[in-house]
Amino acid sequence: MILQRVQSQVTMSVDKTRSHRASPDILCTLGPASLDRRTIQRLEQSGATLFRINLSHTKVADLARIVETIRGATQVPICLDSEGAQIRTGEFVDGSIHLRDSTVVRAHFRRVPGDDRNFNFYPIGIAELLTEGDFISIDFNSVLVQVIAKGPDSVKMRVLQGGLVGQNKAVTVERDIPMAPLTDKDRDALELGCKLGLTHFALSFAGRGEDVAEMRRLVGDDAFVISKIESLSGLENLEEIAAASDALLIDRGDLSRQVPIELLPQTQKSIIRRAKAAARRVYVATNLLESMVSIPTPTRAEVNDIYNTLADGADGLVLAAETAIGKYPIQCISMVNKLIHAFERGEPDGSQSSLDAVSLLVEPHGGRLIHREAGPGDLDALERLPRLAVAETELMDCEQFGYGTYSPLTGFMARETLESVLDTYRLPTGEVWTLPILLQAGWENIEGLAIGDRVALTDEQGTVYALLDVTDVYRYNLEDLAERMFGTTNRQHPGVARLVRQGDWFLGGDVTLVQPLPSPHRHYLLTPAQTRFLFTRLGWSQVVAFHSRNPPHRGHEAIQMQALEQTGADGIYINPVSGLKKPGDFLPEPILLSYQTLLEFGCLPKGKVVLGSFFTYSRYAGPREAVFTALCRKNMGCSHFIVGRDHAGFGHYYSRHANRELFESLGDLGVQPVFFETVGYNGETGKYEVDRGQSLKMISGSEVRDTLRADRHLPDWFMRDLVQEVLLAEMKSGKPVFYE
Fold first, then answer.
1. Closest CA to 427 of 445, 447, 448, 411
2. Which residue in 40, 80, 274, 613 has the fewest CB atoms around it within 10 Å?
């Protein structure tokens, strides 16, 4: 049954005549650290072009299950890597042994329970080919022994250099030992791999062209065969091996057991040149980011090695232990990807932009982060400009235009743009944009203004915050606009009520920010450039954004953690709105204080959360605003965005599935929505679950507000006692907590 399911899945075709990729390939070895759906998907998203299964560490009996796991997560091709003509240590009872200097040990021809006196080499029986006087290096030269006698069932060896030896570790005899290119296990695995529909295979320890031909006889002429150069015979016969192969792979680890390590760099360069001369792709493996097996950052030597390997002409890089058993598989491939981008960007010219860190974050909407702040020339003419007082909400919009949060918008919408957004959910240039961003005014305030004028936008006290270069002056029927924008003309809807309170004339034009509005929590108001800098510095490439206008209750916390788990993102950006809202809503200060308290008390996962505020106001425009808020977080560098059932809505004006329907109708936005239905607390399981008809205790934001106003406490399962204590203390001290 497993075979039938696996065989039915789509496999990627092999184009053996393809031209060189614009970017080098990244081959990732899968193992205990990465053989799960979410990690595999993250590796693919981070640039993996081939997933490698190492038969030296995989049982044939597990192969079908592993292939099914990989194919259940990705369509990236799978490469089966043979054991090949290699001697390894056998199994040890305790997993490893310690060989002491000057002791005598035995390598048995038949299987024995391995300990520090008696053990096996693999393949079983290979020890029979050893002869008296042979020097044998074990576990990458950590141990050296010499054969001193050969008996009917074992060889005796004296330990010349002792040390710790692990099982299934490389063994090198200081002379050629004739071995078949494929083990019995290899043949069984290759046969099964072909039945599973695999098309990529790697031959370990390729020594001559006939070795490759033997593998081809088993996997077929259409298979993509990678021959690994990791022995002296492979070096000597490289041209005939290349002629029989589709690609070569330099395994510097095993090669270093036969080539002096000081000669490895020039040997690598030579192999790459010879592969290029033979018109074959060539990959480089081993110790690319070895330090990142256990720590999250590479050494300077490692990044230099990778850069120089790319400069040598390598077509691909191979991550082995880094992604198979290391602690940081996603960080490793992200680092390789950044190094590839840096290499392709070319040498820096000394300018600041050429020395900016390479980022793997999503591109800003429209491809470029808008930046429109006033320069000296703009300020010199400020006193001569006509002035227009506008509401604080419009000045907030000006700030977001200036910092690029609304990219690709550069200012308030002209009529053509407004009509396009209302009719098609797109800008006239084709980019998705769902929410009108408008500057309303009464005719008495704008009479005399014309297209081409520059206007200083001020608050009610006359302080200038932005400049508007007028490109359109137009009138619009507010009833019609409300119906098309909000889906209703009901004045009970706060968005409609705000729209119809203002004038029916509109100004369109580009905005230049003069200064941001004052704010008591300005340090939380991170610009898109700042969030992108911060996420890159933290090593994040995928970020989930959480939009909120309330303090955190347990339902919020559950959704945040579930979104992190589902997406496999590096972190979450908790980004509550801090602008004006409707009466009864929470003010921004207590919301931010609540989240900051959770962070300080360690209630949120360490190193996985950034808190920042979004200086905008709620329009209550339902699905249109849900997409708009997602695009704003995309500009901040977020790859995923949490969308709740009533996100950005009000009352019952929008259907339960309206948000999901609009997102899905718009296609790929470059930011992935993460949808959640209502979440409640299951008292029987002690977990927070999506409501599917089971018995749940529901969590309501309005109940939070009502309970706090009454100076009462909610159960801890509803909202943490810690958060309630903070909010009640603010209220008792006389500080405002709600908009009144």
1. 411
2. 274
